[in-house]
Specification:
Length: 706
C-alpha cells in the first residue's frame, strides 16, 4: 500500500561546474523536476527543492590547467552561469548552493569520519587517464567511463592507456586509499531495490539489478588530488574525498544551509518522501552508492523514487561538452528572449524517459509553429479576440446552452485525471500531451460551433459558445502552469486571474547565507504571490464555471510567435560548422600519428644506399592499372625508368619536370613487364597521401644525399 507522506524533498543532480548547462541536462533532470515540484505545490503539498553546483573533481582541475587559472576561478565562473541560466528558464530551487561551501566541507568530512572503519588498497587515478574503450572501441575514453557508449570502466580496462594531460605512457604506483565496502550491502540492496521497488522505471531497476547481480565490489572513497574535500584522517595528505562520495552529501549540506533548524525533518523523518531527479549516468550513485552511505549512517531516510531519464542527443549525434556539440541554456536565453517555454515544451515533449531521444532544430520549429502557435495559442487568441469583438471583453453569460457545451466541458475532467496519474508516476511527456489535448478540445469546439457565423443571427448562442471557450481557457491557465509557467502567467494576465501556486522555502531560516536566493531572484516564480482578484487553483481545473459572467478580460496578446526558417537554419549552420571543424581536427590528429621506429641499422647499412636527385622527363600511366605510373627520369648518371604506385594521387602531367629524390642502387625488378630501376623517396602520413621528398632549391641531377 502506498504511504501517505507529509512532505516531499526533491533533489536534482548537482551540475558539474566545469561548463554551462545544456539541453541534455535540462531534458534529463531539471525540466522534469521543475514540473513535478510546481505540480505538487499547486496541490498544496509541502515541497523542498534542492540543488547546487558540484565543484570538485578532476575535470575541473584539468580545465583549470588548460586555461592557466585556478580551479576556484573555474567553479566561480560556471556556478554563476549555471545558477542564472536556471533562473532564466523558470527553474526556481529553494536553494542553489555549492559543494565548495564551508557547510558542505564539514558535512562531508563528518560523514566520512562516521563511516570510516574500513580497509585500504591500491588506487589508480582515473580521469587523468584516457585510452580506447574496450566495449565500443571509442578513442578518448576516460578511466572511469566511456562518454560515447556510457560504459562504466576502470583504468585497467582501457586499451593503450595514456595520460590525459601529457599523452605520455603511464606507470602504476601503489598508494593508500579508503574504500566503501559496497559488497557488505549487497544483500540489503537486493532486498530494498529488487524486492521493494519494482515500481521504479525499468531503466533504473534494470541497471541496479545488473550491478547487484554482477556482484558489488568495495569502491574507493578517496583519490590523489589537491582539489576537493580533504580526507579527514591522519596520514592522508594530498588526498581528497572522491567526488561521487562528497557530491550527494551536498543535498544534505544545502538543506542544512537553508534550514539550519529544521533540516533533519527533511532528511531523518519517515514522513518525508525523498525523490532524486538524475540522468542515467548517475543511477548507480543514487540508487546503490548513496543509499548504502545513508544506510551505513543509520539515521537518514532513503529515496522513495529515482526517476532517471535516458540521454538526449542533438541532431542525431551524442551531446558532448568537450566537442562543443550542444545547445547551451545561457546562449539559448540570449538568442530566444521571451521563448523560455518553447524550450521547456520541446524538451518535455521529447523527454528521453524510456529511451534515448533526439533534439533537432527543425522539430523545435515544427512543435512551436504547429502545436504551441497553431493549437494552444490559436485557440486562446480566437476566444479572447471574439469576446472583445462581441462583448466588450467581458465574459458573456451562458444564455443559450446546447448539449455540445456540457459534453465538451465534461471531457476536461478525464484529461485532468490522466494528467495527475502521469504526473504522480513521473511520466511528464504523457502528462503534457493531456494538457495539450485540452487545447485541442477547445479548438475543435470553436471549429464545430463557429461563433463568428452564429453571431450574425443569434447573439445569445454566441454568448454561450464564448462562455464555454473562456472556461476552457481558464482550465488551460491552470493545466499549463507546471509545464509552461511563463505562458500560463501571460494567459492568466489576459484572463485577469491569479493562481494558487503553493508555497516555497526560499526564505530559509535564521540569518541569510551567501548562497541563498535574494527576494529579487526568480522568474515565473508564482509561489506565495497574493492576487487581489479572481484566483484559480489546481482543484478548479476542469470545472465548468471558473470565470463568472461579466468578468472583465484584458486585451488579447499572442502567447507564442511563429519561428521562421532563417532562425533555425542559423542554428543548424552553427552546428554544422562545429561538426566540420571537429572532423578536420580529427583528420589532422590522425595524420599526426607517427608509426613506431623500425629496428636499428648500422652506419655501414646506410652507406650502402645511393640516394640522389633526379628529374622526371616523361610520365605515362601503365595500361590496365589504376595505381602505376611509368616515369622516365634523368639521374645525372643515366636515363632510366622507374615504375611508381602514385597514379591515384598524381597525374602524368603533374610529374613532368618535377625534381625528386631516388634510391638509385635498388636492385632492378620487373613490374607489369616493365623493368623498374630504383625507387622514389616519399613521405606518407596516416591520411594516406604520399608526398615527395624534394630539395629546397633546384640541384643538378645526380647530387648525392647522405
Amino acid at each position: 500500500m502506498e504511504k501517505n507522506f507529509k512532505r516531499t524533498l526533491v533533489t536534482c543532480a548537482l551540475p558539474y561546474a566545469n561548463g554551462p548547462v545544456h539541453i541534455g541536462h535540462l531534458a534529463g533532470v531539471y525540466v522534469p523536476a521543475d514540473i513535478y515540484v510546481r505540480y505538487l505545490r499547486m496541490r498544496g503539498e509541502d515541497v523542498l527543492y534542492v540543488c547546487g553546483s558540484d565543484e570538485h573533481g578532476v575535470p575541473i582541475t584539468i580545465k583549470a590547467q588548460k586555461e592557466g587559472c585556478t580551479p576556484q576561478d573555474i567553479v566561480d565562473r560556471y556556478h554563476k552561469i549555471i545558477k542564472d541560466s536556471f533562473t532564466g528558464l523558470g527553474i526556481n530551487f529553494d536553494i542553489y548552493s555549492r559543494t565548495s561551501s564551508e557547510t558542505h566541507h564539514k558535512n562531508a568530512s563528518d560523514f566520512f569520519k562516521k563511516l570510516y572503519d574500513e580497509e585500504t588498497n591500491t588506487f589508480l587515478a582515473d580521469r587523468y587517464i584516457t585510452g580506447t574503450c574496450p566495449r565500443c572501441g571509442a578513442e578518448g575514453a576516460y578511466g572511469d567511463q566511456c562518454e560515447k557508449c556510457g560504459a562504466t570502466l576502470s583504468p585497467d580496462e582501457l586499451i593503450n592507456p595514456k595520460s590525459a594531460l601529457s599523452g605520455g605512457e603511464l606507470v602504476k604506483k601503489e598508494t593508500k586509499h579508503w574504500y566503501l565496502p559496497l559488497d557488505q550491502y549487497e544483500g540489503w540492496l537486493s532486498e530494498w531495490i529488487l524486492d521493494g521497488h519494482k515500481e521504479w522505471r525499468s531503466n533504473v531497476y534494470g541497471q541496479c539489478k545488473s550491478w547487484i547481480d554482477g556482484g558489488l565490489q568495495p569502491r574507493a572513497v578517496s583519490r590523489d588530488l589537491n582539489w576537493g574535500v580533504p580526507v579527514p584522517v591522519e596520514g592522508s595528505e594530498g588526498k581528497v574525498l572522491y567526488v561521487w562520495f562528497d557530491a550527494p552529501i551536498g543535498y544534505i549540506s544545502n538543506t542544512q544551509e537553508l534550514l539550519p533548524e529544521s533540516w533533519e525533518t527533511w532528511w531523518k523523518n519517515e514522513d518525508t518522501k525523498l525523490v532524486h531527479f538524475i540522468g542515467k549516468d548517475n543511477i548507480v550513485f543514487h540508487c546503490i552508492v548513496f543509499p548504502s552511505m545513508l544506510k551505513a549512517d543509520g539515521s537518514y531516510i532513503l529515496p522513495d523514487n529515482v526517476p532517471a531519464n535516458e540521454f538526449l542527443n542533438l541532431e542525431g549525434d551524442k551531446i558532448s561538452t568537450s566537442r562543443g556539440w550542444a545547445v547551451w541554456l545561457h546562449e539559448y536565453l540570449e538568442q530566444f528572449p521571451g521563448q523560455e517555454d518553447v524550450l521547456r515544451y520541446v524538451l518535455t515533449a521529447n523527454a528521453p524517459e524510456t529511451k534515448d531521444n533526439d533534439f533537432s532544430w527543425k522539430d523545435f520549429q515544427s512543435r512551436n509553429n504547429s502545436e504551441l502557435v497553431a493549437i494552444l495559442g490559436n485557440f486562446v487568441n480566437r476566444a479572447v479576440v471574439l469576446t472583445h469583438k462581441y462583448f466588450e471583453g467581458r465574459v458573456p453569460a451562458d444564455l443559450k446552452p446546447e448539449a455540445i457545451d456540457a459534453e465538451t466541458l465534461a471531457q476536461i475532467q478525464p484529461l485532468k485525471d490522466e494528467m495527475q496519474r502521469y504526473l504522480d508516476g513521473y511520466k511528464f511527456r504523457e502528462a503534457l500531451k493531456e494538457a495539450m489535448n485540452i487545447a485541442r478540445l477547445g479548438n475543435k469546439y470553436l471549429t464545430d460551433t463557429e461563433p463568428w457565423k452564429v453571431a450574425k443571427t443569434d447573439m445569445d448562442r454566441t454568448a454561450s459558445i464564448l462562455n464555454v471557450s473562456l472556461q476552457i481557457c481558464a482550465s488551460l491557465a491552470v493545466a499549463f502552469e507546471p509545464f509552461l509557467p511563463f505562458s500560463a502567467e501571460k494567459l492568466r494576465g489576459i484572463l485577469n486571474v491569479g493562481i494558487v501556486a503553493g508555497s516555497d522555502h526560499r526564505a530559509g531560516e535564521g540569518a541569510p547565507s551567501v548562497n541563498r536566493y535574494t527576494a529579487e531572484e526568480g522568474a515565473a516564480l508564482h509561489t506565495g504571490v497574493a492576487y487581489d482578484g479572481l484566483t484559480l487553483s489546481w482543484d478548479d481545473l476542469g470545472k465548468a464555471a471558473l470565470l463568472p459572467a461579466g468578468h472583465q478580460l484584458n486585451p488579447a496578446a499572442l502567447l507564442f510567435a511563429k519561428i521562421e526558417d532563417e532562425v533555425v537554419d542559423a542554428q543548424i549552420a552553427r552546428l554544422e560548422a562545429i561538426r566540420a571543424e571537429r572532423e578536420a581536427a580529427a583528420k589532422a590528429e590522425e595524420a599526426a600519428v607517427v608509426t613506431p621506429q623500425k629496428e636499428e641499422c648500422t652506419f655501414d647499412d646506410f652507406q650502402k644506399m645511393d640516394i640522389r636527385t633526379a628529374t622526371v622527363l616523361e610520365a605515362e600511366r601503365v595500361p590496365k592499372t589504376d595505381k602505376l605510373l611509368k616515369l622516365t627520369i634523368d639521374t645525372g648518371i643515366d636515363k632510366r625508368v622507374i615504375v611508381s604506385g602514385i597514379a591515384e594521387q598524381y597525374s602524368p602531367e603533374e610529374m613532368v619536370g618535377k625534381q625528386i629524390c631516388i634510391l638509385a642502387n635498388l636492385a632492378p625488378r620487373k613490374i607489369r613487364g616493365i623493368e623498374s630501376k630504383g625507387m622514389i623517396l616519399m613521405a606518407r602520413q596516416n591520411d594516406g597521401k604520399m608526398r615527395f621528398i624534394t630539395p629546397q632549391e633546384t640541384l643538378c641531377n645526380g647530387a648525392e644525399i647522405g
